């Protein structure tokens, strides 16, 4: 009788048993997750960002010897071999080449970015969340390539071939190399990044940051944001390219809602 009462009573201030500690740890977070100081997380984040920047730099250096051929290819594809390239500053040609290299570096670095993000947040993820994170690494690369391809084969021809050169009978075209390549790289990189939207939507829903029903109910607000983004991505005075971009982004958003159910 006395032993039974003693087992039920816990004196004030007495430490919990190891079994209680294991139970509270399992209930409060991911098993094996160790709480660290904030500065330790900041140092780790700095180091992983450094890895991404080094990866970007090396990819740019790798692409730089081929950037001149890439610029000539883009010029023949979207402008015309009959129109000479105009350079208005001593470093404009070099900066244009670096800008084109940046698009290539960003394309090959997106999987590295997701991987470093996974390594940074992986300690606090459950096993099923880790598996999901590893799935989106190759998917992000493929979506970037798909987005850049849409910009290259659909949007850029509309901007250059069918819109800008309609004024050829009234004015002679003298296009700046930097300005032209800036428009091209903005479209390619912008579409590559925007096509990451399905992964971001799936990630936000799976992590509980936003509810699937909320996205469905807020379609009007999301479509308005898509229209504003398309105006930024496509500098076209006729608004035809903006309409195409907005239409693609709307389709992409609806596709994201379908993928949420699959994942």
Quick rundown:
The chain has 263 residues and is mostly helical. Helices cover 74% and strands 0% of the residues.
Question: Please, could you describe this protein's structure?
Answer:
74% of the residues lie in helices and 0% in strands. It has 263 residues and is mainly alpha-helical. It has one domain (37-166, 174-262). Helix 9 packs across helix 10 (240-262). The longest helix has 41 residues, at 38-78.
Keywords:
263 residues; mainly alpha; 10 helices; 74% helix; disordered N terminus
Topology:
Blueprint: H1 2-8, H2 18-28, H3 38-78, H4 92-121, H5 127-160, H6 177-194, H7 197-206, H8 212-217, H9 219-233, H10 240-262
Number of helices: 10
Give me the secondary-structure category: mainly alpha
Order of helices and strands: HHHHHHHHHH
Q: In percent, how helical is the residue content?
A: over 70%
What fraction of residues sit in β-strands?
A: under 5%
Q: Are there runs of 5+ residues with pLDDT below 50, and where?
A: 1-28
Shape: globular
Our count of domains comes out at: 1
């Amino acid at each position: 009788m006395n032993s039974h009462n003693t087992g039920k009573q816990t004196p004030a201030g007495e430490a919990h048993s190891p079994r209680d500690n294991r139970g509270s740890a399992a209930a409060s977070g991911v098993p094996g997750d160790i709480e660290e100081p904030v500065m330790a997380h900041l140092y780790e984040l700095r180091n992983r960002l450094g890895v991404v920047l080094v990866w970007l730099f090396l990819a740019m250096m790798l692409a730089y010897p081929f950037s001149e051929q890439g610029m000539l290819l883009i010029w023949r594809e979207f402008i015309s071999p009959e129109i000479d390239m105009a350079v208005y500053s001593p470093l404009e040609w070099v900066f244009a080449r670096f800008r084109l290299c940046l698009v290539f570096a960003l394309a090959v670095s997106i999987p590295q970015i997701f991987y470093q993000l996974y390594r940074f947040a992986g300690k606090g993820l459950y096993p099923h969340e880790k598996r999901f994170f590893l799935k989106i690494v190759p998917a992000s690369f493929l979506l970037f390539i798909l987005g850049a391809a849409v910009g290259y084969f659909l949007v850029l021809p509309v901007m250059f071939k069918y819109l800008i050169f309609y004024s050829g009978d009234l004015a002679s075209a003298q296009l700046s190399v930097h300005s032209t390549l800036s428009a091209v790289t903005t479209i390619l990189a912008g579409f590559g990044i925007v096509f990451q939207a399905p992964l971001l939507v799936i990630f936000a829903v799976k992590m509980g940051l936003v509810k699937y029903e909320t996205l469905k109910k807020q379609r009007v607000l999301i479509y308005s944001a898509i229209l504003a983004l398309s105006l930024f991505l496509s500098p076209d005075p006729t608004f035809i390219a903006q309409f195409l971009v907005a239409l693609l982004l709307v389709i992409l958003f609806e596709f994201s809602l379908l993928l949420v159910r699959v994942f």
